[in-house]
């Protein structure tokens, strides 16, 4: 890909590069971008942003003075925005910049898309389990609106959103088995209705006629949200990548996969970070967005080591297992479903520095049929470090839990399906206060964080992307971004 089509000046100052706690200086200022104010001089609230282009890019110095790396092997590239992390959050942010502005974008990942939490996601784009009083409500609602608009646009272009995104309007069932659950579900239905989301309470008989395979006893019931949808994470990511790559020929997009980020380059004059160092490249960006999922905390820690910057992003890996059964005939489902206990587990907060992480294991039933007709059963939650090893005891636990809601799964044994069973494991980026971090690092106006979406990153992706792009461009955000600010939460 050619370099970004933006204008640059070449004032003189120096750069700091921080790596493994060592700061070193480059006496030749590499470049700065010719924007008037703010990051990109834009207060344009909507539509495409056009940048004025004055002149051409000066040649970068061949060599930068680094510590901890072999810079001679690294090449320099310039973009308006550099995004670290090619999960659903990083990739949708890239797409939003590319389709909504004229800026050029680089995406860097230590591996490939879907190697993180995104590849394990069940794909629920749901409101039924959300609380309208929660701080993530508006962001989630906006994000779903954007997903629905995207599915519509795809349909308008003559394609099938099911094929392109794995998009299905299945409706959602939040189910409970006890009288207490039923009280809670009735309350949830009235809260959702008041907040403008179509929802109805289903008695056991009504539930049975909607979803004959599910059994919640005589005291249970369900909250049903007919407009809830689902997507296929792999399919959706593949589409987003395709859109992003369509901007490569004009020099506005490049991806650097299998290139772990190892450092940052800092300007001594502005104090801002102006480049990301990967194993192979130095990628200059007027704005840098870290969307590295559960690795964001350790990455930021490594990048800031030895500098005066105090930032603890707090995000932790929360491991989840999901079972996928191909050609599974015994169970047919009309809707996506989830047991009500999921909500408590998802929202549960735990003190940092847990000693006995095994105590936090939870399994709650989720079940749906994906775009290929596979049965997808979930899911577990636990704090088990960064391991993504499959734990067979958890797999069995998920199967048994599903059997408590779907009697047809009680008859066969899990081993009967060993050949057509796949297990997906992912590390949800968990924030102790239950909401993502979306915003600039305090004191560094061009370094942004977008992470901590836990079990709702697919759902909140497009809203997050819109928010990040508006922040970077200096536009008013569509949804109030203050609950997601890093300030006061990541110190
Ligand atoms: C079992 C399970 C079920 C789920 N179901 C749903 C659901 O139904 N609906 C929903 O909305 N959400 C769901 N989620 C949550 C959702 O998958 C996540 O919230 C979302 O994928 C997070 O995306 P992300 O881009 O922040 O992180 P990730 O997908 O983890 O991406 C982060 C990326 O950063 C890269 N990276 C890390 N360190 C570096 C580095 N040093 N240099 C370069 N790159 C780096 C990684 O390689 C990775 O690709 C589920 C998650 C799990 C585990």
Automatic annotation (TrEMBL):
The keyword Oxidoreductase applies. GO terms for molecular function: oxidoreductase activity. SUPFAM superfamilies: FAD-linked reductases, C-terminal domain, FAD/NAD(P)-binding domain. Pfam families: DAO. Keywords: Oxidoreductase. InterPro entries: FAD-dep_OxRdtase, FAD/NAD-bd_sf. The keyword Oxidoreductase applies. Residues 80-471 form the FAD dependent oxidoreductase domain. GO terms for cellular component: cytoplasm. Required for the assembly of the mitochondrial membrane respiratory chain NADH dehydrogenase (Complex I). Involved in mid-late stages of complex I assembly. This is FAD-dependent oxidoreductase domain-containing protein 1. It comes from Gossypium hirsutum.
């Amino acid at each position: 890909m050619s370099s970004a089509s933006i204008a640059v000046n070449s004032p003189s100052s120096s750069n700091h590069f921080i790596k493994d706690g060592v700061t070193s200086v480059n006496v030749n200022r590499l470049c700065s971008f010719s924007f008037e104010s703010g990051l990109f001089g834009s207060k344009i609230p909507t539509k495409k942003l056009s940048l004025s282009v004055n002149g051409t890019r000066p040649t970068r110095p061949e060599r930068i003075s680094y510590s901890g790396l072999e810079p001679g092997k690294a090449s320099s590239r310039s973009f308006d925005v550099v995004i670290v992390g090619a999960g659903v959050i990083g990739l949708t942010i890239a797409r939003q910049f590319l389709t909504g502005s004229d800026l050029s974008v680089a995406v860097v990942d230590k591996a490939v898309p879907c190697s993180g939490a995104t590849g394990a996601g069940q794909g629920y784009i749901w409101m039924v389990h959300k609380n309208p009083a929660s701080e993530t409500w508006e962001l989630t609602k906006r994000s779903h609106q954007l997903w629905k608009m995207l599915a519509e646009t795809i349909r308008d272009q003559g394609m099938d959103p099911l094929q392109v995104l794995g998009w299905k309007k299945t409706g959602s069932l939040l189910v409970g088995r006890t009288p207490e659950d039923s009280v809670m579900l009735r309350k949830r239905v009235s809260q959702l209705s008041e907040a403008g989301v179509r929802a109805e309470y289903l008695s056991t008989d009504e539930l049975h006629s909607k979803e004959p395979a599910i059994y919640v006893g005589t005291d249970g019931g369900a909250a049903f949200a007919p407009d809830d949808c689902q997507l296929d994470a792999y399919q959706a990511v593949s589409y987003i990548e395709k859109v992003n790559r369509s901007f490569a020929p004009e020099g506005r997009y490049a991806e650097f996969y299998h290139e772990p980020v190892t450092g940052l380059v800092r300007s001594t004059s502005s104090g801002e970070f102006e480049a990301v160092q990967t194993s192979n490249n130095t990628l200059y960006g007027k704005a840098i967005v870290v969307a590295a999922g559960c690795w964001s905390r350790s990455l930021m820690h490594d990048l800031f080591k030895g500098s005066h910057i105090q930032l603890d992003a707090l995000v932790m890996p929360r491991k989840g297992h999901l079972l996928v059964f191909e050609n599974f005939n015994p169970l047919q489902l009309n809707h996506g479903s989830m047991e009500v206990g999921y909500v408590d587990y998802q929202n549960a907060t735990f003190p940092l520095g847990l000693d006995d992480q095994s105590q936090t294991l939870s399994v709650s039933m989720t079940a749906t049929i994906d775009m290929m007709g596979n049965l997808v059963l979930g899911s577990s939650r636990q704090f088990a470090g960064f391991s993504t090893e499959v734990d067979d005891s958890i797999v069995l636990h998920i199967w048994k839990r599903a059997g408590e809601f779907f009697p047809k799964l009680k008859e066969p044994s899990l081993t009967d399906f060993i050949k057509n069973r796949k297990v997906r494991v992912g590390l949800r980026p968990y924030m102790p206060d239950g909401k993502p971090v979306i915003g600039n690092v305090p004191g560094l106006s061009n370094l942004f964080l977008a992470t901590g979406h836990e079990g709702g990153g697919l759902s909140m992706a497009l809203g997050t992307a819109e928010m990040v792009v508006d922040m970077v461009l200096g536009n008013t955000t569509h949804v109030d971004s203050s609950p997601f600010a890093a300030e006061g939460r990541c110190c």
